[in-house]
Design goal:
By secondary structure, the protein is an alpha/beta fold. 46% of the residues lie in helices and 13% in strands. The chain is built from 14 helices and ten strands. The strands form two sheets. It has an eight-stranded mixed β-sheet with strand order 6-5-7-4-8-9-1-10, with helices on both faces. The chain has a two-stranded antiparallel sheet with strand order 2-3. The termini are far apart.
Length: 424
Amino acid sequence: MPATPTPKSLHTIPIPSRPSTLDIHQCLSGLAYVILFNLGCLMIHGSQLFVLVPLRAVLYVMPWPHLQRLHESGVRQTKQCFVQLLVLMTQWFAPTRVLLTFEGDNIKEEDVLVRDVNGRVVKLNLPEKMVLIANHQIYADWIYLWFLTYIIGNASDVLIILKDSLKWIPVIGWAMQCFHFIFLARSWASDKLQLSEKLSKLAARAQLQSSPLALMIFPEGTLVSKLTRPISKKFSDKNGIEDMRHMLLPRSTGLLYCLRSLSPEMPDLHLLDITVAYEGIPPLEYGQSYYTLRSIFLNGVPPPRIHMHLRLFNVKKDVPIGIPSSQASLPVSPAPKKSYPSPEETATFEVWLQTRWREKDDLLEFLETKIPDAHEKESLSYASSAVTEIPMELQSAWEIPQAFAAFAPVVISKLVRRLCRCLF
């Protein structure tokens, strides 16, 4: 008779094969998660509705620069609260550890890791203006990548490109609109101009104000699964391209347009390439068979360890996006540029991106066999550093009230007084 799986080993079993009934601890933990997460979301969204939305309405009538800065500060603050809420919910209900390795001369361990007096990593010293790209295995990918920006220090400046229909989801969708996320109709003919103009405007503002910017993109466009794998294989066969083994072929068009829109306004723009691997997923299996949002947070079966391998590219120097270097050094322009790539530029970038993806595919071949241990280095032929382990948790207990926007009444009163002084 087979042994009953223990909670510590459940993550290695496909979700359909796990016990169908939850124990009392899982039930209570899942209930507490639902209550606390929704409470946090309502508190944060309440701050948006009662402060940011009215302030935005005032800006339409009186577009004063100091009111604009006040509004942008509020957007960044509520976004920071949300990422703190995500980290706290993970810390309490789905604890995990992130294992980092680095590769390349642009991202050396001794230059990147910032530790406190106890040796704990408290910050990653990386460029503040960046585009993050990663392979896409599970729906929780974006949560773990957002935690990475939390450690970097630009979590309050994260931008995500989403389907237009998502912005109408009650509370969450409305909040994402207040976060100034970018919503597209998934029709490239109509989306490309809107995307280019929005990103150019956001980049120019960030450069002018010397503020961070972190655009998060999954070039595969969707999760790798038993449904999407045949589509990738069909496309590769049609175009005479070798298909990936552990990922989908990346779509280069959207990423290229994003980089070309941001780069002219940001001469110091970087591309952070992240290869993500989850412990417990066997080779050639699909991540969603082992980790869903429900199984992670409601059932309490998170990945014990998440390996993130980082590579950093200077967009101006290292990435063939086709924009002349002289254009990238121009001062911030008052209007967005509509510089669309030529077929030759598109083909060159597509080859570059596919080459990077094949390197990631080879790396996943290794990581799906064995997630390295913390501080391990000797056997890591793919990395230029040892493995650095970071628990996914808030850096300070003082951030817990912030995660629930407990500061909101004080901030609201201060904003109201400041607004009254501006108006009267």
